[in-house]
């Protein structure tokens, strides 16, 4: 219920922002029963928690992603974190991703958009955002024999398993089967020697390479899909800003960052208190779950004016914390930005007269991973004009 100090999981999966604002206005750190932990809702405390890994660690057996995928860079801190992350840092640098993957992603995006362009309408999350996200990470990780549809299906089961653990359920058989199939492809890619994953041989065990590769896939698919879908949704909902971006492509990056701020595709990250401590006047007990709401920090009115509005000209839109700060800063943020930029530019290049089909679209939802299920648009199409 809005105004309650303890929103339910349904509240946090649905229109969560008013609930987060209500929590923040009372105290930026609040115990939320439905999450079984503290929720941080202002930007300053969020940054303090994410940067202080010795007090607020990811390294805890309750961490849902580890339960599903095994120990990876995402689930350890300190020197062990460095050992897991270091082998993969070079290929994901900003200076590396563009030259290495830009052309490939552009070709794939064009192929997808040209496939549905003659219809004059499409649901752009499932027709573009999702298949582009899967195809891109398959290419980046060198999983040559994996099919997009097959990976997407495993992926949905694994995603549901991670969400399920957060909601108190256990990993089911479909997710376990999907993990086994993914493992097979990743082991093959490492053995072939044509994958960036091979760089970790000698530093990480085979199980550790798998867990990190699975985290990269997970990190890449749901998030990039959600970001591309939400960016398209925001622009379609604001035709005047869409027109500006259409006419001045240097605004594409701002539209993406403003979307990352307003509707982050990962809404919260979990940490565990290694010691008793105080946070925004609250007494945290050793072992307590401290979740940082990236969605709430990004709408902190102390930092962002009119925080609920989509504004590509916002002077400080880059101050969102969607890629987190501290040691676990997103490894794939440059790849994610590149992919979303390419997707958006391709839509703007190939689909003239883009108009929002609101009745066939839905707002973003999700407890941890968040995206709109449907973003539908129409455009001028020669086929439609001919037969319509
Ligand atoms: C817009 C898209 C993306 C968003 C919103 C996003 C978000 C995040 C967030 C919030 C974290 C921190 C998790 C935590 O601190 O607990 C993270 C970490 C990570 N992300 Fe991303 N991500 C995106 C795209 C990608 C892509 C394309 C990759 C591909 C490699 C990727 C790989 C990773 C990895 C490996 C980590 C773990 C880093 C570490 O623990 O050291 N992400 N991401």
Q: What labels describe this entry?
A:
single chain; five-stranded mixed sheet; binds protoporphyrin IX containing FE
Helical amount among residues, as a percent range? Answer: 40-55%
Oligomer: single chain
Backbone structural class: alpha+beta
CATH class: Mainly Alpha
Tell me what you see in this structure.
Helices cover 51% and strands 10% of the residues. The protein has 388 residues and is α+β, with helices and mostly antiparallel strands. The protein has one domain: Cytochrome P450 (Cytochrome p450, Orthogonal Bundle), CATH 1.10.630.10. The strands form 4 sheets. The chain has a 5-stranded mixed sheet, sandwiched between helices. β1 and β2 form a beta hairpin. The longest helix has 32 residues. It is globular, with a radius of gyration of 21 Å. Bound molecules: protoporphyrin IX containing FE (HEM).
Please describe the topology of this protein.
Layout lengths: L8 H5 L2 H11 L2 E4 L4 E4 L2 H9 L4 E2 L6 H6 L9 H7 L8 H23 L4 E3 H18 L6 H19 L6 H20 L13 H32 L1 H9 L4 H11 L5 E6 L3 E3 L2 E3 L4 E5 H4 L35 H18 L4 E2 L7 E2 L5 E2 L3 E3 L3 H6 L1
Parallel strand pairs: 2-8
Antiparallel strand pairs: 1-2, 3-5, 4-12, 5-8, 6-7, 9-12, 10-11
Helix pairs in contact: 6-7, 6-14, 7-8, 7-10, 8-9, 9-10, 10-12, 10-14
The structure holds protoporphyrin IX containing FE.
The site of protoporphyrin IX containing FE (HEM) has 25 residues, from helix 10 and helix 14.
């Amino acid at each position: 219920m809005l105004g309650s100090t303890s929103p339910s999981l349904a509240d946090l999966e649905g229109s969560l922002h008013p609930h987060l604002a209500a929590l923040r206005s009372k105290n930026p750190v609040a115990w939320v029963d439905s999450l079984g932990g503290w929720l941080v809702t202002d930007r300053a405390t969020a940054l303090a928690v994410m940067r202080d890994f010795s007090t607020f660690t990811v390294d805890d057996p309750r961490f849902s992603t580890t339960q599903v995928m095994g120990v990876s860079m995402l689930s350890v801190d300190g020197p062990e974190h460095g050992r897991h992350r270091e082998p993969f840092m070079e290929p994901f640098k900003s200076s590396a991703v563009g030259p290495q993957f830009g052309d490939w992603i552009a070709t794939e995006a064009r192929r997808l958009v040209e496939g549905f362009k003659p219809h004059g309408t499409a649901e752009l999350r499932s027709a573009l955002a999702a298949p582009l996200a899967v195809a891109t990470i398959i290419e980046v990780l060198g999983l040559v024999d994996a099919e997009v549809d097959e990976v997407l299906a495993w992926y949905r089961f694994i995603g549901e398993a991670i969400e399920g653990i957060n909601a108190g359920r256990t990993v089911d058989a479909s997710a376990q089967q999907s993990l086994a199939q993914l493992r097979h492809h990743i082991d093959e890619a490492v053995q072939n020697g044509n994958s960036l994953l091979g760089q970790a041989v000698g530093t990480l065990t085979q199980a550790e390479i798998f867990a990190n590769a699975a985290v990269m896939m997970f990190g890449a698919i749901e998030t990039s899909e959600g970001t591309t879908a939400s960016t398209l949704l925001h622009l379609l909902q604001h035709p005047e800003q869409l027109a500006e971006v259409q006419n001045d492509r240097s605004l594409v990056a701002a539209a993406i960052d403003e979307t990352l701020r307003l509707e982050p595709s990962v809404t919260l990250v979990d940490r565990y208190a290694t010691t008793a401590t105080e946070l925004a006047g609250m007494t945290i007990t050793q072992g307590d779950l401290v979740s940082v709401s990236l969605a709430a920090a990004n709408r902190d009115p102390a930092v962002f004016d009119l925080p609920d509005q989509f504004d590509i000209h916002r002077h400080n839109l880059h101050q969102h914390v969607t890629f987190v700060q501290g040691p676990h800063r997103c490894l794939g943020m440059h790849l994610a930005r590149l992919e979303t930029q390419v997707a958006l530019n391709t839509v703007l290049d190939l689909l003239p007269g883009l108009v929002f089909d609101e009745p066939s679209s839905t707002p973003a939802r999700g407890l941890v991973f968040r995206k709109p299920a449907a973003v539908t648009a129409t455009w001028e199409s020669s086929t439609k004009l001919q037969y319509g």
